[in-house]
């Protein structure tokens, strides 16, 4: 299992903040800029306020992406903004023009940092999820159309979100079997779910009409809704090759139990089809991808105990996954 590198507690977080402050020396930022940690999930994300300007600084975790892979992420996010009308944050280069700043700390690690513009907006309100899933479907379709036709740079490299990444010998987010609160009964139910998912996805296939470059983490926290600017898409850190419908599964992360799921699915599909084709046979597999993402998240919670949401959800998420799995397995 890959253990999150920020799981070492306050000492590690203090070190990461030191890295962030070292990185700022490379930017045109006021020396007295205020640096505040706002999120620890995979990477550490800071707001930087100085000279009346706010920016976002991301300090990358260790061992997840190479500098080439980070550059590839930035390339696609920039191309989406320039070519597909998808609002994404611009990268703010360092004084020497670098998009990625490498920070070395004596006797410790070397980390990559990226600075982004600060975009307005906030997470979609939960009382408007059905309505907001329609424009999300349209945005997702624009991203998928762009991915299908985009000429990737020669050095482009990103990982895959396939069955091996989910359930192979070294799952990218850790094994669901190590999820919190896992007991023999839960393992039995979720093993049946994994077998069902392997079968469905094996038959669904990875043809180019169904599998390609995706955001892979379009959950609500990575959408910024603003009344004037519209919806922005942030945090492409997990983008890679995967099933296009996985982007819907990711969109409902942590809310898969919401009783409005049928309406949210219908709204998303309606928005998607306003931009691109979505065959009915593909639509019929949406719940396959909801459960695929859910099972990955059980492993993620187990291997990311330092993340706020992992601590909050804990064993309850495993129990809820078993309940959803039972219902899913009862469906022909």
Automatic annotation (TrEMBL):
Q: Name one GO molecular function term.
A: homoserine kinase activity
What Gene3D superfamilies does this protein map onto? 3.90.1200.10
- Limits of the Aminoglycoside phosphotransferase domain: 41-282
Q: Which InterPro entries match?
A: Aminoglycoside_PTrfase (IPR002575), Kinase-like_dom_sf (IPR011009), Pseudomonas-type_ThrB (IPR050249)
Supply one GO BP term: threonine biosynthetic process
Tell me the superkingdom of the source: Bacteria
The record's similarity note reads: Belongs to the pseudomonas-type ThrB family.
Any idea what this protein is called? Answer: Aminoglycoside phosphotransferase
Source organism of the structure: Planotetraspora silvatica
Q: Please name the taxonomic classification of the source.
A: Bacteria, Bacillati, Actinomycetota, Actinomycetes, Streptosporangiales
């Amino acid at each position: 299992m890959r253990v999150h590198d920020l799981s070492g507690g306050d000492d590690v977080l203090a070190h990461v903040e030191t890295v962030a402050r070292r990185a700022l020396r490379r930017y045109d930022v006021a020396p007295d800029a205020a640096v505040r940690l706002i999120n620890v999930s995979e990477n550490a994300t800071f707001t930087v306020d100085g000279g009346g300007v706010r920016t976002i600084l991301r300090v990358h975790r260790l061992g997840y992406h190479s500098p080439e892979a980070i550059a590839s992420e930035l390339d696609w996010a920039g191309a989406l903004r320039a070519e597909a009308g998808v609002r994404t944050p611009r990268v703010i280069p360092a004084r020497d023009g670098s998009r990625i700043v490498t920070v070395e700390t004596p006797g410790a690690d070397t980390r990559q940092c990226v600075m982004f513009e600060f975009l307005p907006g906030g997470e979609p309100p939960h009382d408007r999820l059905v309505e907001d899933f329609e424009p999300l479907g349209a945005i997702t379709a624009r991203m998928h159309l762009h991915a299908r036709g985009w000429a990737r740079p020669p050095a482009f490299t990103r990982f895959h979100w396939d069955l091996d990444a989910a359930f192979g010998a070294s799952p990218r987010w850790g094994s669901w079997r190590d999820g919190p609160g896992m007991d023999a009964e839960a393992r039995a139910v979720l093993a049946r779910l994994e077998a069902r998912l392997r079968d469905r996805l094996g038959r669904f296939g990875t043809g180019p009409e169904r599998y390609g470059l995706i955001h892979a983490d379009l959950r609500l926290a990575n959408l910024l809704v603003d009344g004037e600017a519209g919806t922005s898409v942030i945090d492409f850190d997990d983008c890679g090759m995967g099933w296009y419908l996985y982007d819907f599964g990711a969109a409902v992360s942590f809310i898969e139990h919401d009783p409005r799921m049928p309406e949210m699915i219908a709204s998303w599909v309606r928005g998607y089809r306003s931009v691109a084709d979505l065959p009915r046979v593909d639509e019929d597999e949406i719940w396959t991808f909801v459960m695929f993402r859910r099972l990955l998240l059980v492993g993620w919670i187990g291997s990311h105990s330092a993340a706020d949401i992992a601590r909050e959800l804990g064993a309850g998420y495993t129990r809820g996954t078993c309940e959803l799995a039972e219902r899913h397995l009862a469906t022909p």
